[in-house]
Amino acid sequence: MTDLYQSQRAMRRMRKQAMDRGVIAILDVGSSKIACLVLRFDGSEKFRGADGVGSLAGQSSFRVIGAATTRSRGVTFGEITAMQETERAIRTAVQGAQKMAGVRVDHVIACFGGARPRSYGLDGRIDLADSTVSEEDVARALSACVVPDFGAEREVLHAQPVNFAIDHRSGLSDPRGQMGNVLAVDMHLLTVDTRSVQNLLHCIKRCDLELAGLASSAYVSGISALVEDEQELGSACIDLGGGSTGLSIFIKKHMIYADTVRIGGDHISQDISKGLKVPLNVAERIKTFYGGVLATGMDDREMIEIGGDTGDWEHDRRTVSRAELIGIMRPRVEEILEEVRVRLDASGFEHLPARQIVLTGGASQIPGLDMLAGKILGQQVRLGRPLRVQGLPQAATGPAFSSAVGLCLFATHPQDEWWDFDIPADRYPARSLKRAVKWFRDNW
């Protein structure tokens, strides 16, 4: 626990220093693409210290001055499987963004999908020595949370207080300065697979970059795709990526649950490739231009020219009806949505007030997906795009860039986490995280 606490605080300090210098890079490591954004800060507001508990506390103005994307290589299910190929892809994206920005960046904040995230809900309670809640009281309440033994092969990625209560008055976002006798806190803990995080850290270091922050793609996608009311009233964000589908649930502007389905848009392309016996790049083109999941009476008569360059004229000039293409795509999309519904049922999503579901990510652009999702999930469903960010190129404003834009907001509008408070060493939970985050200790 001591190593985790100190190393996370070290990353927060490194992020603050990079933002004080005015430039920092954002790196979204996905299964289908790797995106890099370079941010410049105007210095009107500095990186927040301990000036608020809650999302978007202490905002800073920023502008995107560089952006680049490249096809992802060596990443499967959101996890690195070929180190050298992923390193080359990251270098290509970072160098392209640096060239556009005209500056060199040394520090990056990264997000990744996959890694089998698992959520835990923790709670702690303390008696107040003084009638007024202080910073130290909040730290003591956080340290009073009993953390389950989640295993040696898991890492803590996020540990965020989501609710405070003083003498049965619940729903407090920041209890400091308020009067009471007993302080209670509810905290959301997100753990991920150790090896996935170690591989990502090692790959970034091989690119001569320093890691100044790490986040889950499911979390940052929810930050950018959900509007403020949806985050407040209880909504789910489904990020349909290439290799995996991320799921995050927000209420009171805090994430309370996250999970991942290891199926994504690339699997739909593979089904088309196998069903039509075409190369994967041709299948991706067909899915992009002609794909869908809801068939109509016109689709039987709408013929799609497959094309190709095999040299066999008859094979390359084949045609297929759009109804047949939909028949290939729909079963896989239904499988993804059914898996998402299982995760939502397990999380208790039906007990939230709003129960709004927002679809985002590159695969969410398949025509008719929102209507099919409404039928399977049985909730209000809409398509979500990332928030407007100053300086973001038009090509990077689509749903496929929700996690990259969300990571910008995560970097500049950080929510308080466990390690943002000065917790005394003698109050670290004895059985909590003693075996976690070895990569922090090895690399800091």
UniProtKB/TrEMBL annotation:
Main subcellular location: membrane
Subcellular location: Cell membrane
InterPro entries: ATPase_NBD, Cell_div_FtsA, FtsA/MreB, SHS2_FtsA
Transmembrane segments: none
GO CC field: cell division site; cytoplasmic side of plasma membrane
Keyword terms: Cell cycle, Cell division, Cell membrane, Membrane
Membrane topology (UniProt): Peripheral membrane protein
UniProt record, GO biological process: FtsZ-dependent cytokinesis
CDD domains: ASKHA_NBD_FtsA (cd24048)
Pfam family of the protein (one): SHS2_FTSA
Domain of life: Bacteria
Residue ranges annotated for the SHS2 domain, each copy included: 24-225
Physiological role: Cell division protein that is involved in the assembly of the Z ring. May serve as a membrane anchor for the Z ring.
Quaternary data: Self-interacts. Interacts with FtsZ.
Family label: Belongs to the FtsA/MreB family.
Protein name: Cell division protein FtsA
Organism listed in the record: Tropicimonas isoalkanivorans
Record lineage: Bacteria, Pseudomonadati, Pseudomonadota, Alphaproteobacteria, Rhodobacterales
Gene: ftsA
